[in-house]
């Protein structure tokens, strides 16, 4: 049984901001970051942007505007587990701005789970830096929240591999079914 949409969390843990207010922050500040912060922070922001796009893709077509409840995450985790092992995931990655039409996917510009975990570690090391602009701290908190969220519903082992495009589409259908079911109950 799912909870109603009004019971779903809409704020980013660690920030007093609604998802809608912060989900586009990495894309909005990308150019500013290049001019104002060091390369490590820029890489963390770019990783956050890519991961936000991945989460948006998993919530297509409506996009990511609320966290699933723990019960809903468990349902999606069971669905992901039922997909079984897929050797194609080894080569899978996600990118910044994945929605661009006719764009050639570039594995060298992509992000993997390992690079995301490294970005989280670097962000945690930099959190206490008082000289970083507020947008960097927002991106750090968003990155942490997205990884924790993916750990909750990306299967019983958490976020350990990037799902293939077909699997992402199947997960999006399941998430939409859950959201539609709870809206209609």
From TrEMBL:
It comes from the Bacteria. This is Uncharacterized protein. It comes from Kribbella deserti.
């Amino acid at each position: 049984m799912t909870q109603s949409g009004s019971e779903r969390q809409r704020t980013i843990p660690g920030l007093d901001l609604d998802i809608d207010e912060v989900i586009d922050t990495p894309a909005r500040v990308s150019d500013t970051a290049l001019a104002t912060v060091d390369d490590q922070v820029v890489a963390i922001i770019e990783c956050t942007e890519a991961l936000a796009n991945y989460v948006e893709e998993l919530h297509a077509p409506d996009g990511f505007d609320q966290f699933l409840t723990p019960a809903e995450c468990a349902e999606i985790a069971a669905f992901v587990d039922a997909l079984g092992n897929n050797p194609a995931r080894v080569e899978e990655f996600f990118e910044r701005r994945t929605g661009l039409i006719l764009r050639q996917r570039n594995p060298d510009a992509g992000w993997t789970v390992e690079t995301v975990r490294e970005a989280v570690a670097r962000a945690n090391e930099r959190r206490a830096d008082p000289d970083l602009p507020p947008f960097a701290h927002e991106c750090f908190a968003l990155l942490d929240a997205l990884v924790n969220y993916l750990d909750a519903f990306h299967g019983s082992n958490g976020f350990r591999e990037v799902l293939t495009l077909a699997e992402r589409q199947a997960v999006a259908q399941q998430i939409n079914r859950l959201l539609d079911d709870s809206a209609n109950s």
